[in-house]
Amino acid sequence: MSDETTAELEARLAEVKAKRGYLLPHHGLMALAFPKLLAGYDAAYTALALDDRVLSHHDREFVWMAVLAATDEALATHHIAKFRAAGGTDETIGAAFAAAAFAIGAEAFDFAARDWGRQLAPFDPQASYVATLRIVAPAAPIRLVHLAGLAVQVCRARWRPFGWHLAAAYADGVEEEAMAEAISLAMFPGSVPRFVEACGHWRGLIADGTLPASPRFRAWAALTGQGGHDEAAGLTPG
Question: Which burial class, exposed, middle or buried, applies to 198 when counting CB atoms under 10 A from its CB (0-12, 13-18, 19+)?
Fold first, then answer.
């Protein structure tokens, strides 16, 4: 490798570090082997995690804490400092973990609804789950508990509880754009395919009238041709 190439590599890494405040090993590998990929990755990460969208810095980092807990993502320790810098406290850190823990525990309620629904009647797993999530993290506004829970369900691919969270969030007046930003934070640690699935489930619940969506979101749900390659190729599920 020439001195010039080394200097260019170091310059690319310096730009990334200046923006984020840190580097991880994959930044160096992409800068070395695939600089165009690094540029695209950095642009996507910036739009996802650094640019201001709907959520405040505090609320965004609250959701990040829950997402990282749900995915066992130990590398992203910078989010601790970012949360504290945005006003996070020990109490709200605990609330983020409580919201994540309860959303992860949705598997038990999902089991009750899926496999024991008739035997447990008139017990309603959804109603019980929603009633409990509203009291599980008293140090945080219910809006944040909803946003964190939605993102966690995307990471865990638990689509029935995801729908429960959506219905409860609409009932409690959580803004749709805030919900959209929250679930988008699951894309990197939780996987893009699961984010795609989450959007499909949300869209389906709007289309079938389950959710009281706004006109803008109803227009999204009504738009045809969103079924990917299978739909374009004339294939049907099953």
Answer: buried
